Amino acid sequence: MDALNLPPFDFKITKSGANYLIFDALRRKNVVLTPEEWVRQHFVHYLIGHLSYPKSLISIERGTSYNKLQKRTDLCVYNNEGNPHLLIECKAAHVPITQEVVKQVSVYNQTLHAKYVVITNGLQHFCWEVDFKTRQFKALQEVPVWEA
């Protein structure tokens, strides 16, 4: 797997048949280790270990609907009231962050209304604060630290 621009963590990889699996601490099971999953697992550990996000408020691949279409968010962190706080779209390291990717996560967030949106491929990370009243996205230099 590619080296990423995220802090390392103590991961557990096993092999099952032709697949490599990585242990997902949130789902409490091994999942197939794809390039996108590699980025997602690194970002989850970054949120928990470096930005103090509680594990219990992080959801992986939760279904949502937009214009009657079923979509899945890569990661969503909820606030203490159960509302979306931080929406994260993960791409594999070899996938460039393009305007299409930004559009994809923006479409998801029209339904979720998360305060912050992050797009990462593990090498580049982009974070915005969303103001739904003015329909403005404010670029942030870093992902915000969890505030209870």
Describe this structure in words.
The chain has helices at 35-51, 99-112; strands spanning 13-16, 19-24, 29-32, 58-66, 69-78, 84-90, 116-120, 125-131, 136-140. It has 148 residues and is an alpha+beta fold. It has a single domain, classed as tt1808, chain A, CATH 3.90.1570.30. Strands 4-5-6-7-8-9 form a 6-stranded mixed beta sheet, with helices on both faces. A 3-stranded antiparallel beta sheet has the order 1-2-3, covered by helices on one side. The protein is globular and about 50 Å long. The mean pLDDT is 91. It comes from Pontibacter locisalis. Residues 35-144 form the Type I restriction enzyme R protein N-terminal domain. InterPro entries: HSDR_N. This is Type I restriction enzyme HsdR N-terminal domain-containing protein.
Outline the fold blueprint.
Elements: E1 13-16, E2 19-24, E3 29-32, H1 35-51, E4 58-66, E5 69-78, E6 84-90, H2 99-112, E7 116-120, E8 125-131, E9 136-140
Parallel strand pairs: 6-7
Antiparallel strand pairs: 1-2, 2-3, 4-5, 5-6, 7-8, 8-9
Provide a short characterization of the protein structure.
This protein is 21% helix and 39% strand. By secondary structure, the chain is of the alpha+beta class.
